Amino acid sequence: MYGFVSIPSGFVFDLIQHPYLQRLRYIKQVSMTHLVYPGALHTRFQHVMGAMHLMQLAIDTLRSKEVYISEEEEEAVLLAILLHDIGHGPFSHSLEHTLIEGVSHEQVSHLLMDRLNKQFDGRLNLAITVFNNEYPRKFLHQLVSSQLDTDRMDYLNRDSFFTGVSEGVISFDRIIKMLNVKDDELVVEAKGIYSVEKFLIARRLMYWQVYLHKTVIAAEQMLIKALARAKELSNTGTALFATPALQHFLNNRITSEDFALHEEHLEWFTKLDDNDIMSALKVWADHEDFILSTLCRKLLGRDLFRTAMRNDCFDSEEIKHIRSRVKDRFGVDDTEVDYFVYTQIIRNSAYDAERDPIRILNNKGELVDIAEASDLSNLEALARSVEKHTVTYPKEIGVI
Fold first, then answer.
1. Using CA atoms, how far apart are residues 213 and 36, in angstroms rounded to an integer?
2. pTM of the full structure
3. What DSSP line would sit under 249-290, residue for residue?
4. Dihedral through CA 83, CA 88, CA 90, CA 92, nearest 10?
5. Structural domain count, the chain
6. What CATH number has the domain bearing residue 200?
7. Burial (0-12, 13-18, 19+ Cβ within 10 Å), 275
8. Does residue 19 share a domain with residue 67?
């Protein structure tokens, strides 16, 4: 995508070679999206390497505009963006709260960064400070985490490339060239406003066309329910095949407090990747438990459930009707039907003007919000949160 990606220092190379980073090679960037877009098999490792490359380009651009960035600060932001996804588990966001209750990948990232910092004798101190937005020069954190950071620039460009969805293509190189710093804030020069507008539109289109595609939603929910069923069976004494790392999380109910207090849980987590889940699904597809085997077999064979999506909510009678038909078709009871029928409310907005505005540096040297500076009539619409309601169910019962 970018040609040669250089590694700026021996320490950065050593960090990339660490098992915690190498694990990301075996975690898909966009989870089950490959079941809709077959090319979407790229990994979290590719993403963090790409984001680091874009960060280097951004630093070079800012320095060319006489923004002082020391060598220590440069290394810190490169390390921060390299480590920003280190806490992701198997299939990225899909299983985030399934294996460990109430623990996000951000929390795991913090724990792993602290552990790495100890292993490398405090050399990550500044990187962690920047990552946590505790460093005085705030624009450095914005390069790592904001509405126009190098993380988003890479994943939009990369996910568009590998899915083949051209609507997600962004002019990342032009956006980076238009970056500047004003009053310690990361801003975009006026000439870059149209590229940023396209970036926001691309983000909206990619969410509804790729990340929240209704078939992707169905596949991810089936994966979540298969793991939930496996945990339920394991907790009641049923022996299930699993790798040692997955077995640890199937056999133990681990809360966020447990995870923070006992380091063994974090150690087992660092041994988990997509391969643990896929090997289990293949074996569970032949398990005697009807629910587990059905979910796994359908998922592996891409015999996916159907998802209906609309702007207004499904009323209770509609859901009751779907559940009744599924119970009759599959011979399951009121508690078991939850493994086959699920509802969701999905919310997304492409731009949050209140929490983290994108500022445009106009020709007078003034800072204005992009919504004010833009002549794009629907930019305000991009800032509105779009809410959709879904219900997912086996397609054997027909269209509802």
1. 8
2. 0.94
3. HHHS---HHHHHH-HHHHHHHTT--HHHHHHHHHHHTT-S-H
4. -110
5. 2
6. 1.10.3210.10
7. middle
8. yes
Same domain, 127 and 43: yes
Look up residue 87 and give its DSSP letter.
Answer: T
Same domain membership, residue 200 and residue 160: yes
Do 181 and 252 have their domain in common? no
Residues spanned by the domain of 222? 214-264+273-346+393-397
List beta partners, residue 186: 181
DSSP state of 304: P
Distance (Å, whole) CA 367 – CA 231: 52
Nearest to 353 by CA among 337, 368, 375, 334: 368
The verdict on 251 and 334 lying in the same domain is: yes
d(CA 112, CA 117): 8
pLDDT by residue for the chain (400 residues), tens only, comes to 889 999 999 999 999 999 999 999 999 999 999 999 999 999 999 999 999 999 999 999 999 999 999 999 999 999 999 999 999 999 987 777 788 888 888 899 999 999 999 999 999 999 999 999 999 999 999 999 999 999 999 999 999 999 999 988 899 999 999 999 999 999 999 999 999 989 998 998 999 999 999 999 999 999 999 999 999 999 999 999 999 999 999 998 888 888 888 899 999 999 999 999 999 999 999 999 999 999 999 999 999 999 999 999 999 999 999 999 999 999 999 999 999 999 999 988 888 877 888 999 998 889 998 878 876 656 777 777 889 999 999 999 987 7
Q: Are residues 325 and 226 in the same domain?
A: yes
In the chain, the DSSP E strands lie at 179-182, 185-189, 306-310, 342-348, 359-361, 367-369, 386-393
**Does 1 fall in a domain?**
no
Q: Is the same domain home to 158 and 172?
A: yes
- Whether 241 and 208 map to the same domain: the answer is no
Structure tokens at 275: 């391969």
